[in-house]
Amino acid sequence: MTNIDFEIYLYLSKKKFAIFVTGENNNKLYQKELIIDNFSNNLDFVGLDIFFRENIFKIEKILKKFVNNIYVILDDEKLNSFDISIKKKNSGDFVESKSINYALNEARDDCNNTLKGNKIIHIIIDSFYLDGKKYLKIPNNVYCKYFSLDIKFICLPKEYWQNIKNIIGRYHVSINRLLSMQYLKFLFADENLDLTQMAKKTMDGYNLNEVVLTSKRSKNMTFFEKFFHFFD
Predict the structure, then answer these.
(1) Does one domain contain both 183 and 173?
(2) Is 151 within the bounds of a domain?
(3) Which end of the chain has the smaller Cβ count within 10 Å, N or C?
(4) Which CATH number covers residue 72?
(5) Of 146, 142, 211, 166, the residue nearest 72 (C-alpha)
(6) Terminal CA-to-CA distance of the chain, rounded, Å?
(7) 103: domain range?
(8) What is the dihedral of CA 34, 38, 43, 45, to 10 degrees?
(9) pTM
(10) Higher confidence at residue 223 or residue 147?
């Protein structure tokens, strides 16, 4: 099994922990769930430490390799959403990726300044407006005097995030990405998919209006063109 590609998903809620290892075609190589009696407003962080330690060692033994990173799916009311609208002049020119990129970065900075102590988990473009006309996504070769974006930020308190990150990091495992369970349910409300399928499709760019957060840049692409999927 050492040559099998795999992904690991960790589901966290106050009432249940679950961990899944998937192979090709979403094949389940390993899965374990634990129901929790928890009446606190927070995750059972002590219980999470025990659950993760026991299962990550079992998974590494089965896979015959060390696990370096996982995906976390969080189902918790500590996740909050905030809406921001931003409007920019465009002087009658084409709508360019650079202009949208500046607007998105400005909105993200405003969110970080306003909501200090929170980590941004998802950024979703709810609406695009070009000279007041609404678009589901920005069309090619369109002139406008101004454009505006309605943007939704899904955030988690940094202290809460840090607790989760620290527990997982004790076992030399990094979090590739954290996903909101409520967001996944919203995206796939009309589809019969299991948890790992929803997570996989989301990370593969299912929602073209979601901004992908990353700290890496490519020398051959602009930041916008590589990580945002708004243009046809």
Answers:
(1) yes
(2) yes
(3) C
(4) 3.30.420.40
(5) 166
(6) 40
(7) 80-156+215-227
(8) -70
(9) 0.86
(10) 147
Amino acid at 13: S
Q: What radius of gyration do the chain's Cα atoms show?
A: 20
Q: What is the pLDDT of residues 58-100, one digit of tens each?
A: 999 999 999 999 999 999 999 999 999 999 998 878 887 788 8
pLDDT, mean of residues 37-59: 94
User: ∠ at Cα 194 (191, 195), nearest 5°?
Assistant: 115
Per the structure, the count of domains in the chain is 2
Supply the pLDDT for residue 3: 46
Cα angle for residues 97, 99, 104 (degrees, 5° grid): 90
Whether residue 38 sits in one domain with residue 141: no
Specify the 3-state DSSP secondary structure of 183.
Answer: helix
Q: Is 33:54 a contact under the CB 8 Å cutoff?
A: no
**Which tokens go with 113?**
């300044």
Residue-level pLDDT at 208: 87
